[in-house]
Every structure is written in C-alpha cells, then in structure tokens.
Amino acid sequence: MKKYRILSGLLAVFALLAGCRAHERKDSVRREAALRPLPDYPFIRYEDNTLQFPSGRADFDTLYHKMDSLLSTGKGKINILHIGGSHVQAGYLSHRLRMNFSTLGDSVMTARGVIFPFRILRTNAPQNYRIGFTGTWESCRCTKPNGTDTLGLTGAAVSTGAPSASLTLRLNPGGTSVWHFTRLRILGYANDTTAYPYAIHRGDTLLPQHDAATHSYLIHYPEACDTAHIRIHTGEGGRFTLTGILPENDRDGMTYHAVGINGADVPAWLRCHHLPGDLKLIRPDLAVFGIGINDANVPPQKFDPEQFKARYRELIALFKSANPHCALLFVTNNDCLLNLGRRHGKRTNPNTARVAKAFKELAAETGGAVWDQYHIMGGSRSSALWRGKRLMRPDRIHFTAEGYHLIGDMLYNAIITDYLQADGN
Fold first, then answer.
1. How far apart, in Å, are the Cα atoms of 80 and each of 67, 248, 257, 327?
2. Predicted model pTM
3. pLDDT at 358 over 90
4. What value, to the nearest 5°, has the Cα angle with vertex 211 and ends 66 and 205?
5. Which of 33, 152, 172, 291 could bridge to 274 as Cys pair (CB 3.0-4.6 Å)?
6. Strand 253-260 and strand 77-84: pairing?
7. In whole angstroms, what is the distance from residue 235 CA to residue 215 CA?
8. pLDDT tier at 20 (50, 70, 90 boundaries)?
C-alpha cells in the first residue's frame, strides 16, 4: 500500500509538471502571436471563425496532446493530410497552412510532404517546388474511370518505358533552405524487376530498396539534400509507373501532406485502388476533407445528400483503418456559381448549403469537426463580394492567390484557437 501511495504521488507530480509545461508552451504560443492577422472585410463573419464539434472531440484531444508533446519537448511526429480537388491541387491554400504551422516553433515543420510531378500531366502545379522531366510518359488521374487500378495517395500516375526517362526535383526553388531529405520514397510499380527508379547524387548511383508491402522504392542519401535527380531504369519491355514522391528524414516534427486533383469528387478518390495502403504508410493524425464542390456541381435535383454522405463514409473508413484516432476536419464548400447551361445560365449554387448540412451530420456521426467556410465567407452570394475584392477568380468558384491565402489564414486561426482553448491540454 505504501509503494502504491508513493507511486501515485509521483504520478501526480509528473502530471502537474506536464500540465505546467503545457501551459508554459501555450503561453509561449500566445506571446509569439501565433494567430495570423486578417484584413478587415465587413462581409466576412470573422466572429464565427471557429471549429464546430456537433458530437464529441476525443480524436482532436488526442491530436492536441501530440501537439503538446511536440511543442514542449520537440519529440513526436504528426502527419496532416489535406485531400480535395482543384482548391488543393493549386497548392496556394495547403502551402499557406503548411507555412503557418511552421511558425509554431523552430523546426516544427520538418518534412515537405508528398509530391506529384504535375508538369507531366500538362496541368497546373504548386509553385513551392519544381519538377523537371525527360522522356515520354503516359498519365492517368482519378477523375477518369478507366485505368485507375494503380492510383493511390495522390490520385494520379505517370508511367514510362523510355530509356531516357528522368525526373529532377527541387524542394526549395526560391533559393531558401526550408526543406531537406535524407531518404526519397518513390511510390509506384514496375511490370517486372528490370524496371525501377534510382538516383544520381554527386556522380554516384544510388540504388533503391524495394518495399513490396508499401509499393515503394526507398533511396537513401549520404547527406541531407533538397534536390534529387531520379532516373528510370527499364529493360526490354520494362515499364515503371510513378504515383508519388515522399521526401523523408528521421527528424521529429509535423508534416503537412496535400493531395488534390482538378475536378475530383468523392467517387474519384474511392477509385484509387491503392489509397488504403498509402494511407497506412502516412498514418494521418488529422484529415482535412476539402472534397465536395465537384460533387455538388450538378443541378439541384441531381444532388443526393444521402448518397453523398454514404460515399464519404467509405472514404472516412479508409482513414480510420489507417489510424483509428485520426481527427476528421470537414471544410464546407465555398459559395460559388453553378452553370446550368445556355438556357438557364449561371446562378448561385443551392447545393452548397446542403453540403454544409451533410458535413455537420457526418461530423456528428464520427466525432469530427466542421469548419463552415460557406457561412464564414458570408453565405449565399458572398462569392460576388469576394470577387469584388479580387479574392476570387471570374468563375466565382476558385480563389485568387490572395483569396487562398486568406482562407488558409482563417482556417489556421480556427484550428490554433481551438487548440489553445481545448480543455485537458
């Protein structure tokens, strides 16, 4: 009994010290003015810029405890995965969030996150990294039903059998020195053992280790790097399919992964056959769901909220299978225009409010959170006001870079405010 009392006393002391460190850490975050300053637009409902929890928040408490540990001791790894359509593929929103999280402390954001060579697809790509390539490549993406059996985390793939095929990756194209890696994980597949990726580094050939369990090829570097020169070896008839690039290192910290494909809806992501396995490789601690605007881009009579939720439940199950404690954050659609054709023209999309309602119901089912972007930006017809301030593009669906940055700042502020105010941390 005496030993039990002593042990209980020690545990109480440790808990008190841990609590003090957490409070000191949060005070430090407050002192450093972690929240981003926001411009004064009267049509934005800044007072409602919060996370909503319709039913419970246990998974967010788990996430916040991991953030406590990382920020107070520098120990632990946190993976955030932001998944969506064109809003995410462009990279403005996700990279703004990535860089905002990096302001929480020195060396908090230690890895860049998954990358895809969108230039090969001849489509827009994030401007915060650079990809060059040689050789002929064929491409596939999840928005097209055929040929998606090799797709996974990024929702896209490029394949080649050309002997001259190569890729060059630069993580820090602006001359800064933010991101580095000591390992490069190439996600992909080969039709036989004669096809594989390898790297050239300072004149040396770095051969990969093939990890069949994760469908990836791991290349180890002798030093920290921010540039990679990847070549594809193909024997006669050999062909290699690349589905993503993961720059990795052994440092503890936070990684913000962002995967988006223009036009992607929930069924498009469910078509990615290897998404479940790739999610287990990432093991996201926080999922930011930004899929929905393409699902709702249909005439009102064709949008079925129950079907929308049923499909989302399938996607949520994949994330929960990878990490049962993954916190789920649903970002509602932005106010936008719906094109009803030549006869009816364009009008404010009435499905936007229905998607917001569906997300709140899904959050209630799963213990997730909702960031009601639709309401916060001003609700119905607010896209015209955003366009008037050059925060949205003429289509009143997509934002300008300035608009995406504002959305990223508001979402970041909502998450950090909730984190600082959460009980038990």
1. 12, 15, 6, 9
2. 0.91
3. yes
4. 105
5. 152
6. parallel
7. 20
8. low
Beta strands, E only, 226-359: 227-233, 240-248, 253-260, 286-290, 327-331, 337-339, 346-348
DSSP readout, 20-34? HHHHHHHHHHHHTT-
Residue of 351, 95, 130, 329 lying closest to 227 (CA atoms)? 130
Residue 235 near residue 255 (C-beta atoms within 8 A): no
Joined together, the tokens standing for residue 216 give 């990836």
DSSP 25-87: HHHHHHHTT-SPP----TTS-GGG-S-B-SS--HHHHHHHHHHHHHHHHS--EEEEEEEESHH
Give the separation between CA 152 and CA 131, rounded to whole angstroms: 20
User: Residue 418, Cβ neighbours under 10 Å: how many?
Assistant: 18
User: Quick one: three-class SS letters along 376-401?
Assistant: HCCCCCHHHHHHHCCCECCCCCCECH
Q: Please provide the average confidence, as pLDDT, over all residues in the chain.
A: 90
pLDDT digits (tens, 9 = 90+) for 160-196: 999 989 999 999 988 777 899 999 999 999 998 889 9
Q: What is the pLDDT of residue 346?
A: 83
At residue 349's C-alpha, the angle toward residues 343 and 353, to 5°, is 155
DSSP string, 314-325: HHHHHHHHH-TT
For residue 373, CA distances in Å to 257, 262, 315, 344, 414 come to: 21, 20, 21, 27, 11
Least Cα distance to 186 among 195, 177, 173 occurs for 195
DSSP H helical segments within 172-282, as ranges? 266-270, 275-282
Q: How many CB atoms lie within 10 A of CB 250?
A: 9
Q: Is the pLDDT assigned to residue 235 strictly greater than 70?
A: yes
Contact 277, 152 (CB under 8 A): yes
User: Vertex 303, ends 321 and 272: CA angle to 5°?
Assistant: 35
DSSP summary character for residue 410: H
The reported pLDDT for the residue numbered 202 is 95
